[in-house]
């Protein structure tokens, strides 16, 4: 059995293949941020409690502070940098669903997966999923409105307008 | 044009795509990392610190201890940046390990051996004031302090603010009833999602470069100069976006450690980044309080006298806690007219994490005490609690506790807020109903007001630079902590220059070398002060544009107007020149040129503020009093004592709403924070005053789905000298929430609930007649 | 962030896992079996766990089985709580699992991890205790199967090198009337003040508790009182509460006397829901 605790990992992130040399004990969060410069994924507690570090692993939301990078070899990782022009990003902007923006990547990743997996999510499903993230700035009411609009957009398949309107 | 519209915040797309960068996102090869070694005791003498083993560990570059460092503190210098002789709170920094990687720093930190001699710990203000209580600061008489701080050596009192208005004896003599209510809550935390972070580096030319997640970049510069004698001009502070602050990032703490650390490693860049546990207890916290309120009133509920004692739990060091205790005193009565006022507000030392402003700056604390008392008074008099508040509502012509006469401009319309709240809440329909054997619904309300007690010479500056396409850049020292103030500044500038707000760009980051100073991004003063500065800068730019245009168009500047991307003749707009043609000066067809890049500059300094008289408190602490009336509706289960917050209401006098959706967001976010604080937050201490829940696993702020429906409305009573009449609104949403929740639950449960947080166990205990806090 | 180094292994079979464990143990690595890793990683950070090697169970096919149609139904120990909730093979277990941590964390937390973790609530154990599930364990001495009730005393009594492969729940137990409730200090996220799982089999109530004591338990004495139909329900409940093992938790989530108050109320709800006359 191999002794060294550093290793080379080939990761699939946002559709790209990235190779890193890292500690086997390193969490995905630190590899993303420190090794790969993907700082959109935020540390908030390193303890699984806040959801700021949420990324998708094979489409499932995962708190990247509680998963080893080495566990994700062979899986598709999506971070906030990998999302462009999704319904939930547009809805967040339109509904003022963030203020300081620190919790936002985590929320968006979680909600994006929710919409993909449960396009017909009802109130209790929305609640079950979103309880995993803490926002300290908003009242959650704005986030709730954004989620509902994005679900609607997904359902009716209306493409969000791509120009970035600055007025509501 | 731009003012009054829900303009989307300028950095919105950065924030939803992961592009937005916060202090800890700026990674650099070769940057060193620090780990804070903190005290496991709340009060202990440090006998020895053994660092050899840690210094020899792989990757370690330095280990800092507290020997020989100057004392720090904004009002009174009582705090060593690293504890030297003794520790005074659980979590206090005793050493800092600097290493190549965070993991190495953590590993080495575990090798430091510290011998402590535990001392008896002081757990609450009342305990700290007891005869014979252990003293936290034996040298209180020797600390350097500013002129408005009055410590009481030989005690644990860091500062006392006295308010004496009218004649309290006469007030009580004229009263038909007198009630007395006591309230209390322990310190809690801001829990910004971004934990605090600071990096520092010293360049070969001696300049010191600090990056910090801070509300006070300019204060960092000033304090490093004051504490360590560094030349102010050589200190450059950079602040990118800040991930939530709520007052907690106003004090200067980690920045000092980062500075000391970089000095210890020859100027290499060092990052000091709080983990969540340190962010909660090592860095400053939300203040705790024990208060007693005595109200004298006529039998129709007209207030005659209020006697108030605030014992603020400032924790181990006074820092900004002194200010908080003063702010609560200044507005001690709440938004009510009271002729005879007596208030002593103490900032008390305890062996707990030290306190700092929390959104509302002493005012949700103040209103929790007074508004609970008002409900108790209404109950005794069998009057409607809304009526009592309405009857005593503050108005222009009245005076505040510090004897400032109120005008139509410097105070919002309290009666209007209360009236609208009553309608929104359908107050008259019912205040308590039983839905079934166990389920009760109840409503509670609270008034709120606030002025910002800030330095009397606080100032703000704004620079506008023009681009060659005629668009404008706004450069202001306001930190974007999430409040959207920079976007509002762009709106103000667009409005004044009559241009499209999309053509007004804002510089988000602060760099104290190139950004004009804004005192601190606190106290809801960003829009007011920086807004005034922005208007002045816009006016300056207009003057310059007109001057150049006047030459080109051969008219006098007085006949010109600026707007819609042009400078034009007022009486014949067909005669004009586009702004873009003169923004960088004007070049005549023959090649001659005049003017140059248009750079507007403006500043604003608060006027006619005065310190408080030490004996009576008389003085003008702030420019304006914003008011609000708020309410909460709960559904309470009488069998198991659980409850659900169904609705939360706020009616706030905003003066003028500059950005409706942003304003709503500010109000609702503040309400959420207030409800979270009141219903579930607070540190739990053991007997030795160790914090037992410094983690989000056990200290659980409100989560999605636990939130009520928010109903917010704004009243608009302009503050004449504010930009477009706007008053501060970033904090008011929070002001009344703890009191309104407590009032609603007290009514629902039929027992006075005067402690926070209002968890079901507390209500259960109160109804059984126990005292709380068996832990 | 794990502030020390360890090596990560991902065996593909039970035999390989056991062999690795033995070898690493001999080398002094104090290996840990690794399920979702959530507890290992977070407690490492706090200095409460340390190891030089982890053995991930998620690639062992037996640990990933989810057979909902067989009797007994088979649940692999490396299934995440979310997988269990979504497939819903055993509704009482679903209810228990759904209350642990939060949804995103449950995407990672495994059934085996929750049963074997240091964090002493181990809430999914309650459903298995009342259903008298079987537990398949592998270790240096091979694979064995036992009734969970014989092995779970405060925590699962595993010997060094053993790990949980599967849980087997007999079909009839899945269909029994049941009750589950978790009450927290406040709100809907967090550790329990009291959690109760109960079911009724052949007119006998089984009940298990978490949050009451610093370990989950099912107690014959408590159940004897609960099932003593000669006495009125309130007396049965009081007697049951008095028979709880000691110590009663008294900590930051709630005091001991409050927990007992809550437990008594939840028991009343349980009895009512299970058709007892109150
Ligand atoms: C955010 C958060 C909230 C939580 N809230 C709750 C809660 O509300 N209620 C509750 O009950 N628990 C709660 N927990 C505790 C959680 O269920 C346990 O920590 C559990 O161990 C995590 O499962 P895991 O698969 O990630 O375990 P791991 O971290 O992989 O392992 C935990 C321990 O179990 C051992 N282990 C894992 N799998 C096996 C196996 N198959 N056989 C033998 N040993 C094994 C490991 O060696 C290790 O000692 C919470 C945890 C987190 C992170
Ligand atoms: S940082 Fe991962 S959950 Fe908080
Ligand atoms: S927007 Fe600041 S924490 Fe959510």
From TrEMBL, chain A:
Pfam families the record matches? Fer2 (PF00111), Fer2_2 (PF01799)
* Source organism, top-level taxon: Bacteria
Q: Per the database record, which ranges form the 2Fe-2S ferredoxin-type domain?
A: 7-83
Molecular function GO terms recorded = 2 iron, 2 sulfur cluster binding; metal ion binding; oxidoreductase activity
Q: Which PROSITE patterns does its entry note?
A: 2FE2S_FER_1 (PS00197), 2FE2S_FER_2 (PS51085)
Which keywords accompany this UniProt record? 2Fe-2S, Iron, Iron-sulfur, Metal-binding, Oxidoreductase
Q: Per the record's keyword annotation, is Chaperone included, yes or no?
A: no
Q: Which InterPro entries match?
A: 2Fe-2S-bd (IPR002888), 2Fe-2S-bd_dom_sf (IPR036884), 2Fe-2S_ferredoxin-like_sf (IPR036010), 2Fe-2S_ferredoxin-type (IPR001041), 2Fe2S_fd_BS (IPR006058), Beta-grasp_dom_sf (IPR012675), Diverse_Oxidoreductases (IPR051452)
Specify the pathway. Alkaloid degradation; nicotine degradation
Instruction: Report if keyword RNA-binding is assigned.
Output: no
Q: What is this protein called?
A: Xanthine dehydrogenase iron-sulfur subunit
Q: Which organism is it from?
A: Geobacillus thermodenitrificans (strain NG80-2)
TrEMBL record, chain C:
**PROSITE patterns according to UniProt:** FAD_PCMH (PS51387)
Query: FAD-binding PCMH-type domain: from which residue to which, for each copy?
Result: 1-174
Pfam families assigned: FAD_binding_5
Which superkingdom, per the lineage? Answer: Bacteria
The UniProt GO MF terms for this protein read: FAD binding; oxidoreductase activity
Q: Which UniProt keywords apply?
A: FAD, Flavoprotein, Oxidoreductase
* UniProt-listed InterPro entries: CO_DH_flav_C, CO_DH_flav_C_dom_sf, Diverse_Substr_Oxidored, FAD-bd_PCMH, FAD-bd_PCMH-like_sf, FAD-bd_PCMH_sub1, FAD-bd_PCMH_sub2, Mopterin_DH_FAD-bd
- PANTHER family per UniProt: XANTHINE DEHYDROGENASE SUBUNIT C-RELATED
This protein is called what?
Xanthine dehydrogenase FAD-binding subunit
């Amino acid at each position: 059995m191999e002794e060294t605790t550093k290793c080379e990992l080939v990761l699939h992130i946002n559709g790209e293949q990235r190779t890193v040399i890292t500690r086997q004990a390193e969490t995905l969060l630190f590899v993303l941020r420190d090794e790969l410069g993907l700082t959109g994924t935020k540390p908030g507690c390193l303890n699984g409690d806040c959801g700021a570090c949420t990324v998708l692993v094979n489409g499932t939301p995962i708190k990247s502070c509680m998963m080893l990078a080495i566990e994700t070899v062979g899986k598709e990782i999506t971070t906030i940098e990998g999302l462009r022009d999704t319904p939930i990003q547009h809805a967040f902007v339109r509904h003022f669903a963030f203020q300081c923006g620190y919790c936002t990547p985590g929320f968006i990743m979680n909600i994006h997966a929710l919409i993909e997996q449960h396009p017909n999510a009802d109130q209790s499903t929305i609640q079950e999923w979103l309880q995993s993230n803490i926002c300290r700035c908003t009242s959650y009411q704005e986030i709730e409105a954004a989620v509902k609009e994005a679900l609607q957009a997904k359902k009716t398949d209306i493409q969000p307008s791509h120009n970035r309107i600055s007025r509501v | 044009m731009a003012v009054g519209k829900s303009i989307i915040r300028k950095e919105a797309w950065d924030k939803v795509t992961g592009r937005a960068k916060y202090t800890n996102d700026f990674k650099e090869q070769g940057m060193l990392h620090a780990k804070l070694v903190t005290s496991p005791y709340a009060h202990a003498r440090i006998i020895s610190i053994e660092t050899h083993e840690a210094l020899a560990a792989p990757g370690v570059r330095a280990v800092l201890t507290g020997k020989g460092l100057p004392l720090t503190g904004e009002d009174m210098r009582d705090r060593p940046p690293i504890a030297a002789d003794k520790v005074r709170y659980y979590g206090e920094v005793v050493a800092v390990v600097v290493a190549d990687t965070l993991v190495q720093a953590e590993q080495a930190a575990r090798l430091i051996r510290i011998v402590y001699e535990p001392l008896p710990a002081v757990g609450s203000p009342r305990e700290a004031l007891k005869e014979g209580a252990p003293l936290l600061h034996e040298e209180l008489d020797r600390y350097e302090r500013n002129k408005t701080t009055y410590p009481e050596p030989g005690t644990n009192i860091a500062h006392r603010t006295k308010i004496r208005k009218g004649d309290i004896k006469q007030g009580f003599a004229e009263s038909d009833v007198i009630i007395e209510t006591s309230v209390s809550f322990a310190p809690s935390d801001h829990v910004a999602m971004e934990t605090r972070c600071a990096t520092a580096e010293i360049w070969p030319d001696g300049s010191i470069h600090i990056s910090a997640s801070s509300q006070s970049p300019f204060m960092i510069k000033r304090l490093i100069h004051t504490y360590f004698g560094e030349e102010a001009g050589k200190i450059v502070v950079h602040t990118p976006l800040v991930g939530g602050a709520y007052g907690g990032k106003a004090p200067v703490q980690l920045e000092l450690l980062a500075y000391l650390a970089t000095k210890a490693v020859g100027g290499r860049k060092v990052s000091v980044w709080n983990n969540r546990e340190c962010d909660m207890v090592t860095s400053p916290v939300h203040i705790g309080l024990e208060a007693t309120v005595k109200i004298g009133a006529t039998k129709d509920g007209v207030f005659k006298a209020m006697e108030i004692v605030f014992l603020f739990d400032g924790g181990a060091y006074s820092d900004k806690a002194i200010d908080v205790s003063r702010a609560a005193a200044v507005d001690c009565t709440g938004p009510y007219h009271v002729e005879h006022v007596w208030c002593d507000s103490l900032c008390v030392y305890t062996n707990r994490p030290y306190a700092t402003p929390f959104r509302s700056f002493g005012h949700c604390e103040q209103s929790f005490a007074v508004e609970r008392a008002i409900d108790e008074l209404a109950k005794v008099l069998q009057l409607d609690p809304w009526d009592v508040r309405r009857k005593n509502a503050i108005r222009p012509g009245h005076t505040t506790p510090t004897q400032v006469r109120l005008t139509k401009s410097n105070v919002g319309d309290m009666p209007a807020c209360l009236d609208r709240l009553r309608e929104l809440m359908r107050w008259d329909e019912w205040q308590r109903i039983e839905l079934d054997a166990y389920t009760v619904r109840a409503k509670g309300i609270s008034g709120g007001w606030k002025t910002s007690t800030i330095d009397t010479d606080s100032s703000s500056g704004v620079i506008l630079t023009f681009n060659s396409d005629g668009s404008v850049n706004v450069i202001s020292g306001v930190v974007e902590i999430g409040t959207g103030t920079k976007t509002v500044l762009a709106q103000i500038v667009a409005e004044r220059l009559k241009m499209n707000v999309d053509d007004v760009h804002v510089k988000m980051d602060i760099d104290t070398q190139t950004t004009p100073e804004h005192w601190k991004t606190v106290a809801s003063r960003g829009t007011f002060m920086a807004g005034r500065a922005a208007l002045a800068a816009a006016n300056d730019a207009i003057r310059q544009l007109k001057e150049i245009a006047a030459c080109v168009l051969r008219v006098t500047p007085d006949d010109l107007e600026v707007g819609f991307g042009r400078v034009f003749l007022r009486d014949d707009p067909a005669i004009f020149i586009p702004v873009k043609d003169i923004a960088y000066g004007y070049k005549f067809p023959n090649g001659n040129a005049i003017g140059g890049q248009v750079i507007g500059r403006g500043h604003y300094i608060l006027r006619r503020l005065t310190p408080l008289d030490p004996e009576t408190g008389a003085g003008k602490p702030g420019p304006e009093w914003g008011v609000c009336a708020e309410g909460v509706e709960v559904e309470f289960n009488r069998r198991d004592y659980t409850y659900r917050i169904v609705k939360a209401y706020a009616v706030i006098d905003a003066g003028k709403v500059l950005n409706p959706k942003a304003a709503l967001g500010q109000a609702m976010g503040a309400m959420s924070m207030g409800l979270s604080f009141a219903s579930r937050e607070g540190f739990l201490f053991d007997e030795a005053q160790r914090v037992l829940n410094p983690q989000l696993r056990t200290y659980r702020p409100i989560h999605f789905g636990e939130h009520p429906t928010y109903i917010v409305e704004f009243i608009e009573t302009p503050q004449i000298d504010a930009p477009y009449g706007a008053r501060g609104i970033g904090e008011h949403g929070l002001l009344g929430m703890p009191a309104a929740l407590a009032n609603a639950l007290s009514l629902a449960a039929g027992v006075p609930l005067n402690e926070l947080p209002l968890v079901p166990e507390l209500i259960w205990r109160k109804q059984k007649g126990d005292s709380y806090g068996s832990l | 962030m794990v502030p020390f180094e360890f090596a990560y292994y991902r065996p593909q079979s039970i035999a390989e896992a056991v062999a690795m464990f033995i070898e690493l143990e001999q080398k002094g690595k104090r290996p840990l079996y690794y399920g979702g890793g959530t507890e290992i990683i977070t407690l490492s950070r706090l200095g409460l766990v340390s190891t030089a090697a982890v053995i991930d169970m998620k690639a062992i096919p037996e640990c990933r089985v989810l057979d909902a149609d067989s009797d007994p139904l088979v649940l692999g120990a490396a299934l995440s709580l979310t997988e269990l909730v979504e497939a819903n093979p055993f509704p009482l277990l679903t209810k228990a699992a759904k209350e642990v941590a939060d949804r995103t964390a449950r995407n990672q937390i495994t059934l085996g991890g929750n049963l074997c973790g240091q964090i002493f609530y181990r809430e999914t154990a309650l459903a298995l205790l009342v259903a008298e599930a079987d537990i398949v364990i592998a270790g240096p001495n091979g694979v064995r199967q036992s009734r969970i009730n014989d092995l779970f005393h405060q925590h699962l009594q595993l010997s060094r090198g053993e790990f949980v492969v599967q849980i087997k729940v007999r079909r009839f137990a899945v269909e029994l009337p049941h009750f589950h409730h978790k009450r927290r200090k406040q709100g809907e996220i967090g550790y329990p003040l009291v959690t109760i799982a109960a079911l009724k089999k052949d007119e006998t109530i089984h009940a298990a508790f978490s949050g009451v004591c610093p370990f989950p338990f099912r107690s014959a004495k408590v159940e004897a009182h609960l099932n003593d139909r000669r006495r009125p329900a309130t007396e049965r409940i009081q007697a049951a509460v008095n028979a709880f093992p000691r110590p009663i938790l008294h900590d930051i989530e709630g005091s001991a006397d409050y927990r007992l108050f809550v437990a008594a109320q939840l028991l009343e709800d349980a009895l009512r829901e299970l058709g007892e006359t109150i």
